[in-house]
Design a protein that fits this description.
Largest sheet: 7 strands, parallel
Strand order of the largest sheet: 3-2-1-4-5-6-7
Strand content: 5-15%
Order of helices and strands: EHEHEHEHEHEHHHE
CATH superfamily: NAD(P)-binding Rossmann-like Domain
CATH topology: Rossmann fold
Shape: globular
Distance between the termini: 36 Å
Oligomer: single chain
CATH architecture: 3-Layer(aba) Sandwich
Radius of gyration: 17 Å
């Protein structure tokens, strides 16, 4: 049956930035589809872990700050998933930050922090997971792009640069890994109601102008991404490589 191809029974997923928001939504969706979950977050992701355990899935928690984690610590995090849960099949590179400032005043530290989490960690975790995937002949990497993978934005040069780069490495990794049975794809969320967008949503004029452009007429939620996450993590997407799927309420086509 077609729905069976969306099941994740026996699979193990590592989700970064899984303590809340889109990452929590991704972790819960994959658990509901049958996967055991490793949660990587700078906090303990206690709430997410409890919700997953209520579903009867195993949980492994990794407390790690991606701003300061070097490649060795990121590889060790991936290995800890294998050590505690027996394998790794799915990596969701969800963790991300945004720092807003005018270009001429943009602090160098903000640039460095954004690139460390949004790009460097994505590369190193993906490389580490891919090495395990090659040995087992299968695996999924799901990256998080953005509307600013396609557009320039304003006041967010580091975020825009990082999300353009994530689109690029999604395609680059896919080119090298598809023939090895490994799928690398991305979702590009539109304007989502998360902590990152709280400053924009609190500006009534700005928020209204955004919603007015979205054909769906509303901000997105974590639930709107759960279906695409399960699809990209499952056998249903085995012939999808290097794709960037906008989940944006129609923003890009307006």
């Amino acid at each position: 049956m077609i729905l069976d191809s969306f099941r994740l029974d026996g699979k193990v997923a590592l989700v970064t930035g899984s303590g809340r928001g889109l990452g929590q939504g991704a972790a819960l969706a994959l658990a509901e589809a049958g996967a055991d979950i490793a949660l990587l977050d700078r906090s303990e992701a206690t709430e997410t872990a409890a919700l997953i355990e209520q579903l009867g899935r195993r949980v492994h928690r990794i407390e790690l700050d991606l701003i300061t984690a070097d490649p060795g610590r990121l590889d060790a995090a991936v290995q800890s998933v294998v050590d505690h849960l027996g394998r790794i099949d799915i990596l969701v590179n969800n963790a991300g930050i945004i720092r807003r400032a005018p270009l001429l005043e943009h602090p160098a530290a903000d640039w460095d922090d954004v690139l460390a989490i949004n790009l460097d960690a994505v590369f190193h975790l993906s490389q580490s997971a891919a090495r395990r995937y090659v040995e087992q002949g299968s695996g999924k990497i799901i990256n998080i792009c953005s509307m600013l993978s396609f557009q320039g934005g304003i006041l967010v040069p580091g975020y825009a640069a990082s999300k353009h780069a994530v689109a690029g490495i999604t395609k680059s990794f896919a080119n090298e890994l598809a023939a090895r049975g490994i799928n690398v794809n991305a979702v590009a969320p539109g304007y989502m109601a998360t902590d990152n967008t709280a400053p924009i949503r609190s500006d009534e004029s700005r928020s209204t102008s955004i919603v007015d452009r979205i054909p769906a007429g509303r901000w997105g939620t974590a639930a709107d991404l759960q279906g695409p996450f399960v699809f990209l993590a499952s056998a249903a997407s085995d012939y999808l490589n290097g794709a960037i799927i906008p989940v944006d309420g129609g923003w890009l086509v307006r």
